[in-house]
Amino acid sequence: MSYFDAASAAPLHPVARQALQASLDEGWADPARLYREGRRARLLLDAAREAAADAVGCRPDELTFTTSGTRAVHSGIAGALAGRRRVGGHLIVSAVEHSSVLHSAELHEASGGTATRIPVDRTGRVSPSAYAEALRADTALACLQSANHEVGTEQPVAEVAQVCRGAGVPLLVDAAQSLGWGRVEGDWSLLTASAHKWGGPSGVGLLVVRKGTRFAPQGPADERESGRAAGFENIPAIVAAAASLRAVHAEAAREAARLRELTERIRLRVPGLVPDVEVVGDPVRRLPGIVTFSCLYVDGETLLHELDRVGFSVSSGSSCTSSTLTPSHVLKAMGVLSEGNVRVSLPPGTPEDEVERFLAALPGTVAAVREKLGAPTSRPVAEEAAAPVDSLVVDALGRRCPIPVIELAKVIGDVPVGGTVRVLADDEAARLDIPAWCEMRGQEYVGEEPADHGSAYVVRRLS
Amino acid sequence: MSYFDAASAAPLHPVARQALQASLDEGWADPARLYREGRRARLLLDAAREAAADAVGCRPDELTFTTSGTRAVHSGIAGALAGRRRVGGHLIVSAVEHSSVLHSAELHEASGGTATRIPVDRTGRVSPSAYAEALRADTALACLQSANHEVGTEQPVAEVAQVCRGAGVPLLVDAAQSLGWGRVEGDWSLLTASAHKWGGPSGVGLLVVRKGTRFAPQGPADERESGRAAGFENIPAIVAAAASLRAVHAEAAREAARLRELTERIRLRVPGLVPDVEVVGDPVRRLPGIVTFSCLYVDGETLLHELDRVGFSVSSGSSCTSSTLTPSHVLKAMGVLSEGNVRVSLPPGTPEDEVERFLAALPGTVAAVREKLGAPTSRPVAEEAAAPVDSLVVDALGRRCPIPVIELAKVIGDVPVGGTVRVLADDEAARLDIPAWCEMRGQEYVGEEPADHGSAYVVRRLS
Predict the structure, then answer these.
(1) Calpha distance B11→B345 (Å, rounded)
(2) Is B278 on the interface with A (CB under 8 A)?
(3) Does any CB of chain A come closer than 8 Å to the CB of residue B315?
(4) Residue A174 carries which DSSP code?
(5) Is B138 touching A (CB cutoff 8 A)?
(6) Within this chain, do residues B431 and B367 fall inside the same structural domain, yes or no?
(7) Which of B373, B407, B441 represents a domain boundary (last residue)?
(8) Are A204 and A195 in contact (CB under 8 A)?
């Protein structure tokens, strides 16, 4: 079994396990108490805070432990917005943030605030100038991830931090995906992270609030963690989180180079091994362990099941793998194909031969899924239809991804060059995937028109 | 070393440790994922939910795991209030709830809601009729602890639940102190608890919302735990929490009888061993492991340090042991002495001889603290003063608990029977402790008058 979903959760690092077990005996008491057991717990908590702060590059009193990365984001955004309420209620986030950031933005809007979502280019990257343009006199806070969790693209955090600092606006950096690889550079004001992403235990997040950043914790008052994280501290897990962060940092340079080479193999070789694939994300400015690609004419959920069956655990941003049946907001913001989407995120230590086995297994797995779906096996547009008609309508209403694109691909050869196909579809993924198919196959995407049910997506054959 | 502060945090139960370690290998992955590791994590989470629900006496889909008891309370109260916003914004809590409940009530008031605090009698118990009288047409929620965390007094939860049910108002029961001893009886609507109170690990709380209870989770949207507890699930800790809850329930009847006998010894023998002591809390309707008493003329912080030095870890509700220098809100609501307060809360398994050692060590420890403070060693009011004057003023301004009471005790013999002593004090504890001293010593507490700085507390000598 090869676990290739480290971006969701990494298996426990041996150092984390050791620290957790060692501190179960010393770290269970209330660190606010004055007796022996409480003092011991306090010592462990203080030492963990110092170690984590050193790894992050901040002062210990700037760092609080939360119960998850999500909680760190929720508390960090709410506290920073409330701390600058007098300045205004405008929030800036990128369109490709983690859902905890985007859901915080939605709640902020529902509570009367405003939010600007910064678009990304086709690699998933924001531009600092877009942040500069979005900053307003009433901007209370800007948020930007250090690197994207679905495609691995690194964001220009230092530049955006500089832009924000120039305007006197704090920048919150969600460093969940990158902190295990090293410090976040730049003059940011707040930072959040999640221990189980770097091999620490579940149940620990970090919230860093730089001195001088206005911050007003929200929710009922609580004395723990400087009032920024309510509830009894989970000290054994905190100790394990801090110890494993130091451990992964010590191994980071060597392991990053190794994983980067392995993901580079996947990036370069998958398009040759599997027809009709789009590798997405920035090819250079990216996390070492993540590579993401989408396969035309493939149902993401079936592909995940098939890969699991042959021993590979990966995740997907395809609509059929989400509870809401919409494609990943990241892929949507990038404007790339979402069907048959596969994210491979290698945990540190992944052996080379597991990656080679994956590359060997992938082509047959994708081909089997495509065959089951009746997908076109070769490039059908190159074939000449017997009696072409100028315009065709494909009714894919009620059919889910990837069927609308498959139906389109099947008939495009039936219209002459210059002719059009109108695909009627009510699946949310079609809006993203039909234009992406056109770009991949060199056809013209004319546009979307309202139809009786769903939409009509119009495609002109160019070749 | 004897750890007698189980009401703050219990050491990890062996079953919890075993379950935690066993599930570190199986429970680290994302239970929302469809691959092998995710399915294994999901199985563990589902099994833990079923076990915990069975122990609580609810349906599995009524129970969510939070990251602490405090979080369960915060989320439970916020969600229940929001779910019944249309009914109104009135909240009922008892005056002796855990701070997480009281702080939630304060936040609710600060947000425009109203709250009624139900008083308690001198044993710390509410009366169901007081809840009945407090219920209004706009009452959205009532809260009552199953048992008090500082004095161990059990509350009439079933009766209050019935009263609330009759009015169509949901009752939230904070069962943090009692759930390890068994199910909470009665027709409650919501229940909260904290695993580290019953020997489970830190980082796990329970929030139960009975079917049919209106509930609207607050905060940013999150798909985990039915939207009621944001952030990645800490499955190893959850598994350990559920396993240890079953384990302590299996041992509860036998261990409760044993601990009840041990705390009964302390209740009965301390007043004979240490002069000028008030044992507080209900002598019968109480938790098995908790006993609380207050010692006149003693500084709580010093007493805790001295007990720690001789090997006993206890806690205190005295003002000098709180960060705000105010006496415990529980002791205040009960109207009992707060100075020299000691809470002994025995963890399951406490050996009899540790309790005997405590009873042997206590008298000398209290006497040493009193001597250091210059407290009266015998009953000074029995001595006749040489030249009594009708009225005396004692200036204890700027002096902290227990000095104002010590100064009062020193001079009461200097006025004739019928004469008065006015104690000038600005320490918050004096307001509680001077009346309590009068009650303990058979003197008349005349009342409090405003003075230039602080207050004047007037006491009339009766004997």
Answers:
(1) 12
(2) no
(3) yes
(4) E
(5) no
(6) no
(7) B373
(8) yes
Q: Is B438 annotated as catalytic?
A: no
Distance CA B56, CA A239 (A): 31
Per DSSP, the residues of A191-229 read EEEEGGGTT--TT-EEEEE-TT------SS---GGGGTS
A194 interaction partners in chain B (CB closer than 8 Å): 232
pLDDT in tens, B295-350: 999 999 999 999 999 999 999 998 888 777 789 999 999 999 999 999 999 999 99
Give the position of tokens 């149902």. Answer: A299
- List, in order, residues 6 or more apart from A87 with CB less than 8 Å away: A138, A139, A140
Among A201, A197, A187, A211, smallest CA distance to A147 is for A197
Is A3 inside any structural domain?
A: no
Question: Longest Cα pair distance anywhere in chain B, in angstroms?
Answer: 90
Q: What is the pLDDT of residue A386?
A: 55
Domain of A94 in residue numbering reads as: 10-248
The reply to whether residue B220 touches residue A104, judged by beta carbons under 8 angstroms, is yes
* C-alpha distances out from residue A183 to A179, A187, A248, B109, Å: 6, 12, 12, 42
Rg of chain A over CA atoms, in angstroms?
24
Pick the range with the lowest mean pLDDT from A326-330, B247-251, B386-390.
Answer: B386-390
Residues in chain A: 463
- The structure tokens listed for A312 are 């590979």
Alpha helices for B60-218 (secondary structure H): 69-83, 99-110, 128-134, 157-166
Q: Are residues B148 and B267 in the same domain?
A: no
Determine the 3-state secondary structure of B143 from DSSP: strand
Position A4 in a domain = no
What is the distance between the alpha carbons of residues B448 and B450, in angstroms, rounded to a whole number?
7
* pTM metric for this prediction: 0.94
Alpha carbon A52 to its chain centroid, in Å, reads 23
Q: Give B118-155 pLDDT, tens digit per residue.
A: 999 999 999 999 999 999 999 999 999 999 999 999 99
A5 is a domain residue: no
- Please provide residue A391's backbone torsions phi and psi, each rounded to the nearest 5 degrees: -145, 135
Cα–Cα distance between A95 and A110 in angstroms, integer?
A: 18
CATH number where A151 lies: 3.40.640.10
Question: What confidence score (pLDDT) does residue A302 get?
Answer: 93
- Domain tally for chain B? 3
Option in B38, B231, B308 nearest A35 (CB): B308
Is residue B294's pLDDT more than 80? yes
**Cβ pairs A/B, distance under 8 A:** 197
CATH of the domain at B294: 3.90.1150.10
